[in-house]
């Protein structure tokens, strides 16, 4: 048991498949809200809002498979497979239904979870990420800020180039996508670099990207039956914000949201006040 401010944090690790266990941090009480981070982060992405969110909700901040304290198996990084494992985690933790919030890769995973488990996911929030299979998806590789989509899908070369250089790569990646250069302390960069340097972490988290083709195919099929649960689609004004609502409306019928002013990709760290206010207004208590 650790603490974040005045809130107690309970660390759990649950076996969800013979070769997969997921680490999560639980805080607060009330309706369950699962928080899914992006690349190259861990559950700690959510620390700027976790304590306040836990006042009215049971917050479950998960290390995605491949990252942080979760398992790093060789296979199974398509988002439908990862969503099934998250739903097993939900059941093992004793929640009948959940509200799901995801940023970056976590947003892709959050959609897959909601679309494949419509009886257990009651609300969905997706932050600053396009969904594989959306109409704009095929043109994303021409976006200069999305150069890493292609690079991370290469086999073996990224692992070779990043090994031993995790600190520099993570710092460049974080600071190059933020409108607020004070959003990340050196300690936060150190944490994410250390997590990425753990055995198997680079390869495993890059597999999230290498599954994109499968994800796009799966999502196009899932979109034939649009989500009817409420969806909050938010992004930074200087990144995906202007497109978020339109993207999610290709997959769901009840979508609200838009752009967060003076914000880049890292919405939780850059504008925690806005993100918290939007979530507290959106989530059921």
TrEMBL record:
Its EC number is 3.3.2.9. Residues 31-272 form the AB hydrolase-1 domain. Keywords: Hydrolase. One of its GO terms (molecular function) is cis-stilbene-oxide hydrolase activity. It comes from the Bacteria. Pfam families: Abhydrolase_1. The keyword Transmembrane helix does not apply. Coiled coil: none annotated. This is Alpha/beta hydrolase fold protein. It comes from Mycolicibacterium smegmatis (strain ATCC 700084 / mc(2)155) (Mycobacterium smegmatis). The lineage of its organism: Bacteria, Bacillati, Actinomycetota, Actinomycetes, Mycobacteriales.
């Amino acid at each position: 048991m650790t603490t974040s401010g005045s809130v107690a944090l309970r660390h759990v690790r649950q076996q969800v498949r013979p070769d997969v266990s997921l680490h999560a941090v639980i805080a607060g009480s009330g309706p369950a809200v699962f928080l899914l981070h992006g690349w190259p982060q861990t559950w700690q992405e959510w620390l700027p809002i976790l304590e306040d969110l836990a006042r009215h909700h049971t917050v479950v901040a998960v290390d995605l498979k491949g990252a942080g304290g979760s398992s790093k198996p060789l296979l199974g990084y398509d988002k439908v497979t990862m969503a099934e494992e998250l739903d097993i985690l939900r059941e093992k933790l004793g929640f009948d239904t959940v509200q799901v919030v995801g940023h970056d890769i976590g947003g892709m995973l959050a959609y897959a979870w909601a679309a494949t488990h419509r009886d257990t996911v009651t609300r969905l929030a997706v932050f600053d990420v396009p969904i594989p299979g959306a109409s704009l998806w095929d043109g994303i590789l021409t976006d200069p800020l999305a150069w890493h989509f292609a690079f991370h899908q290469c086999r073996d070369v990224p692992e070779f180039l990043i090994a031993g250089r995790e600190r520099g790569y993570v710092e460049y990646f974080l600071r190059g996508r933020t409108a607020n250069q004070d959003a990340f302390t050196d300690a936060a960069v150190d944490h994410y670099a250390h997590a990425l340097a753990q055995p198997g972490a680079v390869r495993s988290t890059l597999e999230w990207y290498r599954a994109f083709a499968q994800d796009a195919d799966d999502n196009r099929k899932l979109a034939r039956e649009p989500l009817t649960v409420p969806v909050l689609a938010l992004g930074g004004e200087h990144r995906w914000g202007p497109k978020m609502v339109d993207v999610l409306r290709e997959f769901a019928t009840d979508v609200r949201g838009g752009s967060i002013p003076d914000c880049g990709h890292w919405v939780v760290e850059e504008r925690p006040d806005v993100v918290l206010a939007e979530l507290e207004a959106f989530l059921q208590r």
